[in-house]
Amino acid sequence: MLLPIVLWGSRPPSHTVSCLFLSRDDKVLISGSTEGQLLVCDVFPEALIPRNFLVGHSTEVVGMDQLVSGLNNFHIISAASNGEVFKWNVTDGSYMLSTVVQGPLIKLQTLPSSQNVLVCGQYGAITVLDYNTLDIKHHLVPSDPTHWVLCYTVFQPPKTKDEEVVCITVNGQIKTWNLQFEGREKMILESETKILNCPRPVCVTYNPRSLYNCLIVCQSIWRIYRAGDFVLLCSGASNQEVPWSGGKFYTVDKIMLWRENGVLYVYQLPARAIRPVDHSDASWSAEPPTLLYSVPTGPLMECLLVHKKSMRTPHDVLIRGDRDGRLSLWKQDREKDIASEGLVECIHTSLSKTWNKDNVALVNEKCNRCGDAVDITASVYLESLSYIACGLSSGDIIVGLVHHFLTHSLFKCTEDSEEIDSRVRLKGHKGNVSVLLYPHASQPSSYLPNILYSGGADFSVKIWDWKKVVLLQSFTTHTGPLTRLFLPPTQATGKLRGSVVSVCQDNSIAITTHAQFTPLFVGSCHHTGVLEIRWRLTEDILLVHCLDDTVYVWGLSTGHLDRIETGAVALSLVSACQTFSEGEHCKLEIKPSSSVTRHSTGLSVVPFSFSSGDNMSHLLLFDTELLLHLLSQLQGDIMTHEFERSKSQPNVTERRRASARADQRLSDRRTSIIKQTETAKLLEERSVISEIPVENTAEIKSSSEDIEDKEDDKETLDIIKLTCSLLLSCLHAWGVDLNIDRTCVKHLGLLVPGKELSYGTVGSSSTFMLLLPGWEQSIQQQSPNTVEAPFGRWCISSTLTTQHLLSVSALANKQMSTDLTLSFNRRAKNNTAKREQV
């Protein structure tokens, strides 16, 4: 059981809004982002409060929707552009299940009546998934496979219970499917097709209040059609170069459109586009709409969501999100004149607005010039040593035991000068440290454990001996900041063995090693960013795969560019070469085969960032089961060692007799030596003096080995006990009972947290629920009678509460048992020493 704790740092993570979803009870707002995470916010009449992140998607989130799953559970389905479809329990903040749909996705929508989920992407079919299992049930396929679906909506005709899917294809055709799936085949063709002049459609939506007309928005025009036969009622064109990005019905007779630059437009529809009329009349003609007003809601607007007839407010509500992570609510009173009053922004929030610069970070340092917090721009976890290296925005690199970092950054304690000095500081970069690499973790046979690579904004790659605090080499072969460091494959030989590949922001690469003063290879003609590096060592070839799917083929020994391949040839070259470079990744994931989740001390650190411009955050993973196992194992080893030691040692009487006999033999020997001649006596004395240490050498050697083993066991036990103490200090409910708090500090040695901690849960190897700092205080300000400060963490998630309570109970009992065993052995040793002295 893994218990995560997040150290967010002084700056909030990036959250570029890509889609929005408001729950049916208007209490929860969820925003998807291009970085892949979902931001869950609590909605109050006067505030939007960010609560937690749901992390799992690896690419942009393109859609979310909800199906009601009981009274106490709030489940949503989310889809990403790479085909990932996840199901979440938002009430508990837990991951439920997931699947992957072939092809990139652009939209997701649920069907409450049939318990199905519709997803479509940049291909010719709409996929129907089962809501409970996410299994593929049907494919809604056009008769012509070249007619790709660009947008769709679900429509229920008046006076019928049958739902229909209406989509617009890439060539402007309208296609409909009936959603009666019972007894039908897996591949379902459309039931009706109609050709419309809708170039490059963006969205299609029906009027939810009248079901009489539908709105189709294209990049350059928008049109209102009559539902069913798609007779044109009115239309409007874009007079600006900025294209339309979406639209919806605002009221029965008004529509709302918005552009990519963030400007919002509200149009009044003509009378004949609102109510049914006889269009066969020769006097009928399409009337132009009337622009009521426009609102510059802000630049870089990514998406909008309109919610009407809210049960918690007498206003129409417009929710807006932008690429800067800003979320805002706009209201319009229905009783007032919409043309004169317009929309008014009433609530807005963002992570930057609610973020506290003094949030918990692994390194708490201030800049000497401006006084701001020094950001952690790069970090790497030295897993085999329980050390961590942190690169700072000031250019320094700090390396030390991770437990010491946590003790000083999380808790209220007086810093010990010896522990501060034990953290090594490497100085040499000018500007921030952008990337770190510890190669011994991936290839221990090729790299020494004291070698650390770093790259910075000063265009340099530096090689350190961090144990001796020595800069071994420094290379400045790039013309921009370093972005990544790779390792050559394990099959590399010769000069490549023990080298590192560096990638720069100017798209150049270089191969350096501390064995020589010049780089082994430099390549700098790539037009786009480097995606991956592959090797053909037998042919002495290096393949550089770039973001535009172009492959550059380099000769390693000559350093010349052999050729550039694109298209199918480039993809075949990449797929045929299975040997690729390993580097440090900043994505938040846990590999099941990695020892990150099974570290020898029960604590591991996962550095991560959602975007390249973010500062480095850290996820602490405490493995409760492993900690209990290690404590039990060490407790058993100590008891076994002491038992064997006491069994092998003779009793006190025998030891006294053996010592007396040894003293008598030594005295007799010396007496015989004195009786000999002076020369012989000198020789014999030398031989005797040399004999005594020889006899004692084995005893001294064996005793020194025992001392080293005891010291190693003691050090391991101290680290494990420190890990348990840190975890119990983080999980204890401080402030509930002050007497219990004083007992924990005095007798158990727990530390009081100095700042608010952010907890989380682990759903699978790559899904997390991570709480955001400041949520408890904000909730208490908005609803003081609902959540009290000491109990806020225990009210957010049943999974989180269960895991924390079980861990506290189990670890406290096991730690007390281990302390009793150590105390008993310590008293036994003291009694034995006293008897020997008598």
Structure description:
This protein is α+β, with helices and mostly antiparallel strands and 838 residues long. Strands 2-3-4-5-51-50-1-49-48 form a nine-stranded antiparallel beta sheet. The protein has a five-stranded mixed beta sheet with strand order 10-11-12-13-17, with no helix packed on it. It has a five-stranded antiparallel beta sheet with strand order 42-41-40-39-47, with no helix packed on it. Strand 15 and strand 16 form a beta hairpin. The protein starts with a strand and ends with a helix. About 5% of the residues have low confidence.
Q: Largest sheet at a glance?
A: 9 strands, antiparallel
Structural class of the helices, strands and pairings? alpha+beta
Low-confidence spans: 591-599, 680-709
What is the average of the pLDDT values? 79
* Tally of helical runs: 11
- Taking the alpha carbons of the first and last residues, their distance comes to 51 Å
Give the overall silhouette. Answer: globular
Topology readout:
Elements: E1 2-7, E2 17-22, E3 28-33, E4 38-44, E5 47-55, E6 61-68, E7 74-80, E8 84-89, E9 94-100, E10 105-111, E11 116-121, E12 126-130, E13 136-141, E14 149-155, E15 164-169, E16 173-178, E17 187-189, E18 192-195, E19 201-206, E20 213-218, E21 221-226, E22 232-237, E23 244-249, E24 254-259, E25 263-268, E26 290-296, E27 301-307, E28 315-322, E29 327-333, H1 338-341, E30 344-349, H2 351-354, E31 376-382, E32 387-392, E33 397-401, H3 402-410, H4 417-422, E34 424-426, E35 433-437, E36 451-456, E37 461-465, E38 470-475, E39 482-487, E40 500-504, E41 509-512, E42 521-523, E43 530-536, E44 541-546, E45 551-555, E46 561-565, H5 567-576, E47 582-583, E48 603-608, E49 617-623, H6 624-648, H7 652-674, H8 678-731, H9 738-747, E50 758-764, E51 767-771, H10 775-782, H11 798-837
Parallel strand pairs: 13-17
Antiparallel strand pairs: 1-49, 1-50, 2-3, 3-4, 4-5, 5-51, 6-7, 7-8, 8-9, 10-11, 11-12, 12-13, 14-15, 15-16, 16-18, 19-20, 20-21, 21-22, 23-24, 24-25, 25-26, 27-28, 28-29, 29-30, 31-32, 32-33, 33-34, 35-36, 36-37, 37-38, 39-40, 39-47, 40-41, 41-42, 43-44, 44-45, 45-46, 48-49, 50-51
Helix pairs in contact: 6-8, 6-11, 8-11
